């Protein structure tokens, strides 16, 4: 399970960082079904792209820790879940968005429970390994 968690955390971070770069570079043109929305909406889209890039880098940072901190995984998954809840609220108030956005909503609601469930797998695996003595660690 610890290996699966590491792979999932790294995959989530890489995907979010790539999506963030995509939105940062393309602005409003990165949003399916949207035409020219003007400078204000383009500026907001690029800002959110930078924030999402940072969010993805936070996932990658977590994946590079040993053990992967369960608190970080839970917080990051919770933020992802909040994004899905925000999309649901938008659908309730304004109707369904473009179909790709619906797929994203499903992912944002379905993936966090998996991350919550696996969040402490790496910490549990590390706790079950025998401690490494300093003299042993220095030997080749």
What secondary-structure arrangement, pairings included, does this model have?
Layout: H1 2-26, H2 39-63, H3 70-94, H4 99-118, H5 121-128, H6 134-138
Helix pairs in contact: 1-2, 1-5, 3-4
Essential attributes:
single chain, 140 residues, mainly alpha, 6 helices, 77% helix
What features would you describe in this structure?
This protein has six helices and no strands. It has 140 residues and is mostly helical. α1 (2-26) runs antiparallel to α2 (39-63), α1 runs antiparallel to α5 and α3 packs antiparallel against α4. The protein is elongated.
Helix and strand succession?
Answer: HHHHHH
pLDDT averaged residue by residue: 91
Structural class: mainly alpha
Largest sheet: none
In short:
With 140 residues, this protein is mostly helical. The protein is built from 6 helices and no strands.
């Amino acid at each position: 399970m610890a290996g699966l968690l590491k792979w999932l955390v790294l995959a989530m971070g890489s995907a979010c960082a790539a999506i963030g770069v995509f939105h940062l570079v393309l602005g409003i043109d990165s949003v399916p079904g949207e035409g020219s929305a003007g400078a204000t909406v383009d500026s907001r889209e690029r800002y959110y792209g930078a924030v999402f890039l940072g969010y993805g880098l936070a996932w990658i940072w977590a994946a590079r820790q040993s053990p992967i901190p369960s608190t970080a995984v839970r917080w990051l998954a919770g933020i992802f879940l909040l994004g899905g809840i925000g999309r649901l609220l938008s659908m309730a108030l304004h109707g369904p968005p473009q179909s790709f956005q619906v797929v994203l909503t499903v992912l944002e609601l379905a993936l966090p429970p998996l991350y919550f469930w696996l969040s402490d797998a790496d910490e549990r695996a590390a706790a079950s390994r025998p401690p490494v003595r300093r003299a042993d660690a220095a030997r080749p």
